[in-house]
Structure to design on (196 residues):
């Protein structure tokens, strides 16, 4: 009887481990097309169309399907357009599930892992004088009020994104637009950990 009970417990444990979500993936937006997360607040004039690349790092998690949702701060942006840079069986772009964001997704990929550019998104910046700027952010909270969030999966398990980096903007003042460019030295420690 004890052996049978131990066997049942082992099977239940292994089943739970197989179905539990893996975590450690990172998702970020990138304005200057260098493949690295943006840092700092970028000064842009109101009315600027901001194009952001969307990147993920799944770490060692091997995936065959994904969903990536990105939202903008209320009142500071309007949605413009989005597209894919990853080739495969991509879903139609989701313009509707989140009123302030876009959704990208696809399935049937051949066991991808590590760093991948998924696509791009465009927003019109309406302006903001907020000291901390207004941001465009990947949604990683599974309890998002619109029921959308970033995730990676296979046919038997999934991975939630543990961290996300956003892109923040405020209105340029004075002599016109200035594009904030992060210094490599200040962000290198974070970048170095992404490219193992």
């Amino acid at each position: 009887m004890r052996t049978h009970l131990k066997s049942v417990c082992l099977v239940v444990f292994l089943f739970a481990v197989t179905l539990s979500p893996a975590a450690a993936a990172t998702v970020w937006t990138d304005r200057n097309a260098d493949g690295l997360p943006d840092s700092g607040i970028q000064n842009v004039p109101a009315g600027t169309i901001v194009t952001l690349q969307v990147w993920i790092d799944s770490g060692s998690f091997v995936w065959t399907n994904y969903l990536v949702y990105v939202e903008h701060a209320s009142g500071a942006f309007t949605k413009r357009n989005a597209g894919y840079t990853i080739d495969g069986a991509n879903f139609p772009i989701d313009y509707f599930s989140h009123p302030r964001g876009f959704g990208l997704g696809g399935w049937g990929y051949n066991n991808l892992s590590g760093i991948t550019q998924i696509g791009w998104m465009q927003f019109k910046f309406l302006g903001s004088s907020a000291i901390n700027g207004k941001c465009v952010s990947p949604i990683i909270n599974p309890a998002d009020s619109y029921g959308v969030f970033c995730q990676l999966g296979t046919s038997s398990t999934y991975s939630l994104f543990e961290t996300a980096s956003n892109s923040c903007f405020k209105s340029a003042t004075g002599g016109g637009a200035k594009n904030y460019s992060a210094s490599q030295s200040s962000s290198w420690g974070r970048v170095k950990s992404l490219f193992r």
Q: What stands out?
A: Residues 20-175 form a domain with the Immunoglobulin-like fold (CATH 2.60.40.680).
